[in-house]
Amino acid sequence: MLTTLFWLFLAVVLYTYLGYGLVVWVWARLRPGVRPELQRDFTPPVTVVVPAYNEADILDAKIQDCLAQDYPADRLRILVITDGSTDHSAQVLARYPQVRHLHQPQRAGKSMAENRAILFVDTPFVAFTDCNTLLNPEAVRRLVRHYADPLVGAVSGEKRVQADGSTAGAGEGLYWRYESLLKRCDSAISSLMGAAGELVSFRTALFKPLEADTILDDFVQSMRIVGEGYRVVYEPGAYATEPPSFSLKEEMKRKVRICAGGWQAMTRLPGLLNPLRQPVVTFLYGSHRVLRWSLTPLLLALLLPLSAALAATQGGVYALALAGQLAFYAAAGLGWSLASRGRPAGRLLVPLYFTLMNVAVFQGFWRFVRRAQPAAWDKAQRAAVAA
């Protein structure tokens, strides 16, 4: 029994983190998605919404970034919502009469701010972008071109992390490069399994108000659109560049919040796990998201004591498996120690970041079951935005 469990657990872990990527990469190459040409004459009215909570220090740069979009000015509306902000955001926005500013004293979180902002959107398409990101000039144009296909319900851009030489930045950048590969494959096969809130657009008519306590607004909104039978497309030619977390502790805080939101999202998207409705979506969603947020981290943790038990009785390959796991986690601990002292983790980056990601799942689950993750969360501290 222990031997069977060992190989079963190992197979699931290897599939989740390596096998799935290989499967969808081959699948996407065999069934390449149809990429539309950049039709410069397809420029319907679109509203860019920027939720900004106490972001006055970077708000000026963000507005100028939006105004610099390669898109007809008469068809591009910009709306900034600063609900709950107590800084001088209003004074900054007063310098831009062409930007619509929404504000109320109460802070209810990003989801509620977006719910309120959508009431003021009168264009057929809407794009949301975080205040601490900078967009490439053709971002809006490249997002909107996909809506020439009536089956496309949402389009997500690519998140890029600025390299600053830090361990946190290197780890986050490595993760997003791999995640971007999976997103390209998912989109080419069927549909993107969850949009990135740094830059995402929707058909306005498909945007549904989210529950007030929603943690991952971008993910839940986009996956509900997938559940309605529309495609969510990944467009790497539209990208939002974001500074990395200020430190590994700040990055861990962000990861725990995402994992808590992942557990919440899984409880609110049960229909996506019904293979009779959308079999391909169920396969992609279950492999890319559900396994990574739930079962696989548990099996990964159980592999260690299981390997120890088998190594004590049978030795051989199980002793090697135990030694490999201990060395991997020791490398992660050493990497954390180096990063905590401000030194680069170097080759220890992969075991360090991989371990942090899986530890965050357990902490996120505990936060979810206690309902201790508020929608209006404390922002993770990030490095300064570079122009």
Automatic annotation (TrEMBL):
Signal peptide: none annotated. Belongs to the glycosyltransferase 2 family. Pfam families: Glycos_transf_2 (PF00535). The keyword Membrane applies. It comes from Hymenobacter canadensis. This is Glycosyltransferase family 2 protein. It comes from the Bacteria. Keywords: Glycosyltransferase, Membrane, Transferase, Transmembrane, Transmembrane helix. Residues 47-161 form the Glycosyltransferase 2-like domain. The chain crosses the membrane at residues 6-28, 290-311, 317-336, 348-369. The keyword Glycosyltransferase applies.
